[in-house]
Amino acid sequence: MDAAPAMQMTSWTPRRAVAALIAGQIVLWTLVPLLTHTTMPLDVVREGLAWGVEWQWGYHKHPPLATWLVDAAFRLLGDLGPYLLSQLAVCATYVFVFLLGRRLMGETEAATGTLLLAGVYYFSWPTPEFNHNVAQMPFWAAGAYLFHRALHEDRTMTWLTLGAVAGAGLLVKYSTALLLAVMALHLLGSRAARRRLLSPRPYAGLAVTALVVLPHLVWLVRNDFAPFRYLEGRAATGASPLVTRVVEPVAFLLTQAADHLPMLALLAIAGLVGRGALAPPPAGRPVAAAEDRRFLATLALGPVLLAALASLVGGFGLRDMWGAPMFNLSGLLAVQILAGRLPRFQPRRFGLGVAALLVLTPVVYGLVATFGAALTGRPRRIDWPDRAMAGALEEAWRAGTGCPLRIVAGDSWLAGLVSVRASGRPAVLLDGEPAFAPWVTPERLSRDGALLVWRIEGSKTGIPNALERLGPAQVQSPLSFAWPRAPRIPPLRIGWAVLAPSACQAQLA
To answer: What pTM does this model have?
Structure first.
């Protein structure tokens, strides 16, 4: 592919093309949401900053690493931090995919496979919301790259680094185990790869993985494996066995295929779709060896098929966004499959297609974020008046208690918003459930009290049962806040109450 004049990217070398993709991704997908969101996305607040006030070795839903990362980014850079962090994760994924592609095929093929990822849904629209799915992406890509290096080079440091990356991936989200399972299947199923099992190096890498996750394992034991109980309830859909074992896995696979439709458009624009696409590549092309083709197919398709199979056998539901880290290698696989059309590749058209997609998608995203609430009459999470809300509640708390605000109790979204914008980042008593927030001990709750918050919808204004169980609280008059982007929509109504702190004399009536 590199040798053919038709395949040259004019003045753009493959590395420059990937660098341009990375630059565009960081600039556009960081600035557009930063400038158009009123507040940060749901998971950034709910599973990042609301938890990250207290750095723990685990939380009631997930392992800790993604939470640590987003909290550190926010502490360092404010609102810019989580948006930039998310795009750095995506771009690190691009880098590792390109590095792996160079090992499997020519450099231009590697760049083409990397740029094709701009046409995969998970690399664009969802990325402003840094969450555990986005956080997994670079660890999966790095794992695939290091695994290939380890198999072919068998160097101790490579195996140890792979073990560390695998451990870090598990500290982001347990579903990284799917990738590790597929790696194990390839290791056992390939005669060439099985030879590595005779060396102590893979086992040393496995030991590093165990060391990395050991503190979290200790936390799991001490907290009665709380995330697994959450996962069990989350995966259970309550639907019939036919739905959970057949319909949902099939729907999951179809959704993942639909998420690749823009990539198919890029392939068509590039001239890689048409007669002869599945034919063997012409002689002289730098294509992957048979063993590497098996490697790429296994790691690209194995995780999603294994997830669907597990759902089919286990009868649990699948969430579409769980597929986010599973398709880092889609572009490389497409280039490998369509090698017969490589002589007809149109680099200029392809580059323009990628550039158009890279620019137009965030522009449309920004327009939806700016005008969506006003047009639909339904504000989204990014439209909440968080600063006004937190400012008013904190001021009322201080005026009534004479104490600084130390604890906010409520659902993790609403209480998290107040915590993010209040001075000093008060701790969040998640959903008013002490088991979800062990850092709020009974002694601490008694000493510092808590601001209880909930959203009022309809005519019911009383304190929710989950918060009422915390103790006798003084319910206050509700507060109303206009939606910043849709002032004609009925205002947001917030109920609140004071669980009086013993450290101060509560003055509220």
So the answer is: 0.94
Question: Same structural domain for residues 470 and 407?
Answer: yes
Q: Are residues 357 and 440 in the same domain?
A: no
- For residues 390 and 379, the answer to whether their CB atoms sit within 8 Å is no
Instruction: Classify burial at 191, counting beta carbons within 10 Å of its beta carbon; exposed 0-12, middle 13-18, buried 19 or more.
Output: exposed
Asked whether residue 21 carries a pLDDT value surpassing 70, the answer given is yes
Integer Cα distance of 449 and 474 in angstroms = 11
**Is 264 in the same domain as 134?**
yes
395 and 432 share one domain: yes
Q: Please give the residue range of the domain that contains residue 443.
A: 384-499
Which of helix, strand or coil describes residue 409? strand
Amino acid sitting at position 145? Y
Mean pLDDT of the chain: 92
Mean pLDDT value of segment 6-26: 80
* CB-based contacts of 303, cutoff 8 Å, min separation 6: 178, 179, 182, 325, 326
Q: Is residue 463 part of a domain?
A: yes
Which pLDDT does position 195 carry in this prediction? 92
Is there a single domain that holds both residue 357 and residue 408? no
Q: What is the dihedral of CA 433, 402, 49, 223, to 10 degrees?
A: -30
- Number of structural domains (the chain) is 2
Residues 6+ apart with CB under 8 A from 220: 58, 226, 227, 228
495 DSSP β-pair partners:
454
- 241-268 pLDDT tens trace: 666 778 889 999 999 999 999 999 999 9
Whether residues 354 and 441 fall in one domain: no
